[in-house]
Amino acid sequence: MSSISILEERQAQIHTKGTAPFNMSCDKKSLAGSVSQRACVFCGSRVVLYPIADALHLIHGPIGCASYTWDIRGSLSSGPELHRMSFSTDLQERDIIFGGEKKLYASLVSLIDKYSPKAAFVYATCIVGLIGDDIDSICRKVAKEKGIPVLPVHSEGFKGTKKDGYKAACDAMANLVGTGAIEGIRPTSINIMGEFNIAGEAWTIREYYERMGLDVVSVFTGDGRVENIKRSHGAALNVVQCSGSMMHLAQHMKAKYGIPFKRVSYFGIEDMSKALYDVAEFFQKDYPEVMEKTQTLVREEVKAIYPILKRYKERLKGKKAAIYVGGAFKAFSMIKALRSLGMDVVLAGSQTGTDEDYQVLREMCDDGTVIVDDANPLELSKYSIEKGVSLFVGGVKERPMAFKLGIGFCDHNHERKLSLAGYSGMLNFAKEVYASVTSPVWQFAPYGKR
Amino acid sequence: MFGGGANLKLAVSNIIKQYQPALIGVGTTCLSETIGDDVPLILREYILKNHDPEGPAVVSVSTPSYSGTHIDGFHGAIRATVDALAKKENPDAGGINLFPGMLSPADYRHYKEILSDFGARYQMLPDYSQTLDGPMWTEYQKIPAGGTPIKEIVAMGDASGSIELGRVLAKTKSAGKLLADKFAIPCHSIGLPIGIKETDLFFDRISAITGKPMPEKYVQERSRLIDAYADGHKYVFEARAVVYGEEDLVIGMASFLSEIGVVPALCASGGKSGHLKAMLRDVIDDFDAKGITVMEGVDFVEIGEAAKKAHADFFIGNSKGYKIAREMKKPLIRIGFPIHDRMGGARIVHIGYRGAQQLFDCITNTIIQCRQDASPIGYTYM
Ligand code: SF4
């Protein structure tokens, strides 16, 4: 095939393990014209806050921002579904000239009257940053008039990358935390952070913690409720998954309320079990029975799925996989999970990994594995082909590329409808990988079977 | 703060390096429009400075999200491309320019088939029949194969006539009108060829430009379609439909529904050209007697509320309407773009007699199935 050249400025963000000394460049602005797979600041905020189901989400901007983020996450709610609406102030040319504050005020008031939300988030988009609407003061005004929290989210699209959007979302939530009553919260209570209840995953995880004898005060933000967030400072521990999106809030809660946090991942048997043990360990001194219950839980769960996983492993052994996900922490778990299915990860990368993340990634990977930061479809396909992968794990933007090249694809992003967290999730994942890799349709691909 | 010029130039040069395209299209966003970037000027500067006769053509179009809808961006991009590239070079070349409207890849293939069957020379812009619905690759395609070749866009300046499809489009400064103004190429503005009446107009125009009669194949297709209308007319008669989508699609679909006896009880669009109602009146017989509700510039919440009052039997439009159809427990017939919740959106033929045949079967069968499922007897025949 014609070889694909890599832009010079991008070379430093690609590393092949075992070749040169490791000095990976990351955490920087995307290169113009390189077709990054990243999204904008606003999109980062929107996906983090999206699952808060009893809040009003109003996007202050032109219709495009709202339309592209309408009903985009498979985050389930056990009650209200207001989060699935994408409200917009639908700014028009004249609003750009004369300012959108009046429209924002009117939209907020009429939507709050119509839907009676428990709180409202107002997202600032690119254009709002430019025309200089004072959304803070409008939010204050409406909060006072309507008696609910109205929180500005400073997510102007051009302010940075998706990661800055996570931070803006955390800042907005930080204003809610600490405003509710914490009486009656037991000392064995935790918050689940960075779990978005895709396909009901938060429910699975919550059930594990409850079986361990712990209470969950608030999930950030899966199946989220404003009341729970307000009282979340009553928890003894923050358990943080998907560190990219929630670390900022966890750090804030540590500084302000002295709540320690632990970073975990619920993906794959190994990391799932480690998460539960880490949390049990935290309560070990005062509540040793938690550990006992945890051991029983892990034993039972693993026993139930292990024989089935073994059967999948026999069929998948030695197949090669590529991983490209949003946060690097997810990539770590994925590598372990794919290994436990007998597969070799030959390409790994993330949109938003940090220096330390890439150090860890490098230590985990085998020699010859290509590691990429903020890659584009050209690079991803180049290495997928060169390395002969038969599975690509990524988000919705990588799917067409994989399918066009006759590579099995497994969606690990927020649009999916399949639960992949926990032990039951690992089983689903194995099934999904098995279907993606061994389907007979690939025999007709121009490439033939890999 | 300092304008986006430097970034835009860097992006263009990186794209050239990595993709070696023959053309680069630049769309603006609300951001670049509002900070006052003069995109055409920045691009001219770039081209002057990096003078390269082999380099790509660069076309820019103003597409801020705060004015108009996606369909304005679609037609705007076509017009800008034609404006930048079409030339009068060889007046004897002839041929038909076709501006097909925003439809499916299968529709585009059908357009090309029809024009080829007429033996006509033609240029169609855009043409994503292959780029959006093509085969698997053996190696990564930086730019997918297919599309309108640049030399055909250039040759649009030599055509003996343009056909542009869309009754609302006809009211705008379209690519067809631009060619009429610039090179005196006659522009035939008609509706999207959906259903027999609108398709007849389309064939008439091709015949007028080429001087050839409708090929026998389509005479046959048309006759079979009328035969099918007769077989199925009772099932669809006075069924009530909610039609939504881009204005021109709504008009084409409403025209088709009316000619088979369905009442397009609610016609709704996010577009707000101000022409929708008048044009629906043109294509729907007894428009005023039918009590049809027409809504412009609406969203799905408003469509949902109006749909409840319209006593609809089914919805017809893109997959975004699924939520409201589900709420009302009425079937949704998926057409147009996007269709995100079913396979094969790219393969739906809406246009021509063939498209009408497929739509007719689909609508009739949907209605039959609803009755069959609701029937206590469960007839095994129609
Ligand atoms: S915030 Fe800016 S970059 Fe993000 S979707 Fe809106 S206009 Fe686009």
Describe the structure.
The complex is a heterodimer of chains A (450) and B (382). By secondary structure, chain A is of the alpha/beta class. Chain A folds into three domains: 114 residues, Nitrogenase molybdenum iron protein domain (Rossmann fold); 134 residues, Rossmann fold; 113 residues, Rossmann fold, CATH 3.40.50. Chain A has a six-stranded mixed β-sheet, sandwiched between helices. A four-stranded parallel β-sheet of chain A has the order 3-2-4-5, with helices on both faces. In chain A, helix 10 links the parallel strand 8 and strand 9. Chain A is globular, with a radius of gyration of 23 Å. The mean pLDDT of chain A is 91. Among the domains of chain B are: 67 residues, Nitrogenase molybdenum iron protein domain (Rossmann fold, 3-Layer(aba) Sandwich); 143 residues, Rossmann fold, CATH 3.40.50. Chain B has 14 helices and eleven strands. A five-stranded parallel β-sheet of chain B has the order 9-8-7-10-11, sandwiched between helices. In chain B, 42% of the residues are buried.
